[in-house]
Fold these 2 entries.
Entry 1:
Amino acid sequence: MSSALELLHRVFGHTAFRGEQAQIVQHVTDGGDALVLMPTGGGKSLCYQLPALLRDGCGLVVSPLIALMQDQVEALRQLGVRAAYLNSTLDAAAAAEVERQLLAGELDLLYVAPERLLGARCLNLIDRAPIALFAIDEAHCVSQWGHDFRPEYRELTILHERWPQIPRIALTATADAPTQREIAERLNLEDARRFVSSFDRPNLRYRVVHKDNGNRQLLDFLSGHRGESGIVYAFSRRRVETVAEQLVAAGIRALPYHAGMDASLRAANQRRFLQEDGVVMVATIAFGMGIDKPDVRFVAHVDLPKSIEGYYQETGRAGRDGEPAEAWLCYGLGDVVNLRQLIQQGEAGEERKRLELRKLDSLLGYCESTECRRQSLLGWFGEAHAGACGNCDNCLDPPRSWDGTEAARKALSCVYRTGQRFGAGHVIDVLRGVESEKVSRFGHESLSTYGIGRDLDARQWSSVFRQLVAAGLLEADIERHGALRLTAASAPVLRGERSLRFRAETAKPSGGARRSRNGGGAAAAAAMELDEDAMVRFNALREWRSSTAREQNVPAYVIFHDATLRAIAEHSPEDLDELGRIPGIGASKLERYGDAVLQHLFDHR
């Protein structure tokens, strides 16, 4: 491994491997196939980039997102790696030049979209080119049960069938046990060595809040992340546009992103998010897969995601640099109704619909759990977490629970007495004895359940109904526009044969209590570790980095990560030798930027 370590330091500026990187690199370099499961930010890319540099020929990387290939390639070129991409954004002349470089052995890494790879021209090109390995990134896209299924990935078995002597490495950050088995089966990787790293992201703080006034709650959350880059996920295109407008009106640099936008505007917004500091992207889940921006300090969901796998992958786009980051989820019972309707009215087969509904129920159970969030999340992927994590809302502020058996019986009875035809709002009005026009119109003031729930306020009853749905005792009837109806599991509760405990609804936060617990943002917290002089140097270096990135039309993090700039500011090296010992500075970046960095340090001493 001495040559791999030397290359790791000289090219990437790191002095040691993390986790199983060393074993993976050695295995693939020796010609072995591998299936790698590693969390976002865990260093997956190195697992195929280093073997590609160590083996003869070019490493061919199958990547599903054309929009991000340019940034991935530019980041490698900054390191002195001969990298290129082949996709539909290139004109004929540019594509021909990349093909010439590949055939001439002038490339170390080539990124290709699966659709392009499967074309006859590209397959014939590979026949004539020196290929070091095949890397299949985002390998979970092969699974028809996954959240990012791409049918083209199913055809990638051709790599093994046509070139069995070339090693393959498939990588993903999101795959439960069934998806792992399907990846191995669909890609003919049953005999490949499997490397499964911990799915834990200890730098992420998980928080779940119940939707009360979603817009206000989001602004309260963002008040603790002023000036930081982040992603806000919303359920629909219309919701994305509305939330983005509200954030802009509140003085936040927010941009929308969804599939219904003009393609050029969508691409421009993504470019701004990648290249500028402190931009908040409001998006549907169409945004984000493969995003390499390391300094995303938060991911906020203003609506419930579809599954735990999707939630895990989306939150994993925060804190890729290992610095503190936050995953915040705000949801309500209406989100459950909307998602169930989306699933049941979709074109998928009944088996697929049942699976998606089970996954939604599992996510709802995660949201309502009183246990450590990290334990629950990792448990879904078959990984145990020893003890409480100390970095989620349930650990930091343990929720109280209460005996909800009697309240549950009242709620279930009222749903039944009102004919299982209404949503939670109306049933709560009946329980609380509200004299509304709707209650009078249906004569529900004469029901035996009218007014039997005056001991709880509307917010507490909303929590009860949410938890009854999470427990599988109630479900939304999509054909009746989300009306609640009893399930078979509710019978033992109504008969007094089963007791329930509910999570206590916390009081509404007030004033300054609404701010993020990390004291004004993860980046601010990290910066506070620097003394006053180092902070001046750090800010000066960030300004220089932004200017340099604009000149080159590349994302700022491609020049240097924040963590690298912080280390430079803290240690204040006086010459190139000292600067070269800073983690994240390889030989190419030292040559390209060393003198400029030292000059800025000298100017701000």
Entry 2:
Amino acid sequence: MTGIVGRFREALTGDRRIDPDVLVDRVAAVRRFIDLVEGHLPDDRLGPAHTLVERAGDRLALSRDHTVVALAGATGSGKSSLFNALARIDLSPVGVRRPTTGVTYACVWGPPEGAVRLLDWLGVLPRNRFVRESQLDAEDEAALRGLVLLDLPDFDSVQQSHRREVDRLLGLVDLVVWVVDPQKYADRVVHESYLREFHRHRDVTVVVLNQTDRLPAAEVPRVLADLRRLLDRDGLSGVPVLATSAVDPAALADLRSTLQSTVGERQAALRRLSGDADAVVDALTPLMGPAPAPDDLDRASLPGLTDALAGVAGVPAVVEATERAYRHRAAGSTGWPLVRGWRKLRPDPLRRLHLPGPAPDTAGEAEATSLTSATSVPDPTAAQRSAVGLAVRRVADRAGRGLATPWPEAVAAAARSRLADLPDALDGAVAGTDLGLRRKPIWWRLVGALQWLVTLAAVAGLGWLVFGYALRALGLPPLDYPMVGRAPLPTLLLLGGLLLGVLIALLARPIIALGARRARRRAERRLRTAVAGVAIGHVIEPVREVLAAYERAREALAAARSGR
């Protein structure tokens, strides 16, 4: 027996042992991967990963002292007879009617208490559970203590429910013993639908050629060799192939030794989950390509995106209105006081856009201004909207370049995810931008005060002259006007005040024009900064989140792969 066990261990696993802690870390890495890519990758591509995480968590939480072995085979392969022969008791019904096995039967070696939760998880009905050992066995069955042997329904049954039950349990058991018979060992359904799908689970797969008693002794090696050839073609090279017969106890020795070795190692469950993890990681690997390019979105993509968003936000119109508003307000503050009232009749260009006007005089007006969040900038044209779409697409194309499919689509979806919020966000950004016109410059106040001074001088001179004319008209003694040179002082005050007011206004005009251009550039710079903030928050940052998830998912998948 020792030689058989040694050959089995070498053929089946190559003495490769699975560290439970490493396996737990691999499953945790797959769980992190799922959490990171959730919402970015199609759900159907993540189904096996979800199944692995759930199945591994459940199986590792259950008894590790038990090894679940399933006998799987087609109708007439004799697996139920083999099940009874291994148990040395007739537990599973055997008959000529097909299919014979319609439900799963379980036989437990050893105390059943630890296996109850495991069988509940497997879904084996209580009435189909049997305990093999008894006091009459003494230590005859001690080597199989911890074995949970299942007799599955026929996977080629005409009853679809039987096949669904087989498929479900094949995904849960620790080791599968495929039972084939000399007549149908090469059946296409067996190899293409089942055996070939187990190529990643060679460590927990055994194939037995049953009913060898029906073959001439000289034919058994030839059939085993042909079965070995078929298994190698299925990707199951190295999987043990044993000859059995339910009617010959000696023909079960190798299979019993195999089961004893498996139960004794307590590794089958870990190897099965490790194989499942390998399959999941291999399926997920094509979804993850090379590392993303360094993040240069701010430098490469933000300027063009900002230009496009500035167009739909009405920044050119606001900038133009800012320049005109500067001229309008400067002229109103530095112009001749006698015509300022006329200027007030003209609407302020920024006020017409519902943008901040001059500094409010009262707290109530300040509060009303702060609550204004909607502007009246011109609606964007179709060309401007199209420019935004193209700019967003360029951002997504640049960020998703080189990523594995379907990540470029995920990046593009992230770039478009907040487009519906852009109009309100841009409107709020423009409305909330300080255009630099909330406070009057000091020189406006100084020039305005000077204008009032010369205007008052002109008014004083005019009043002085009028008073003098009134006295003469009433026949009263005329006033003796002070003279400045040869000109009366009142006349000099009147004419000088008028001329100085016009001269000051003319001198202030080029300064106002220069200030208006500076105000235009300042407003454009501040508005573009605000629009760039919207571009980052609504387009760039969602893309960065996807790229960050991609990079962390690559690391998680590498961690899941590292324990192989």
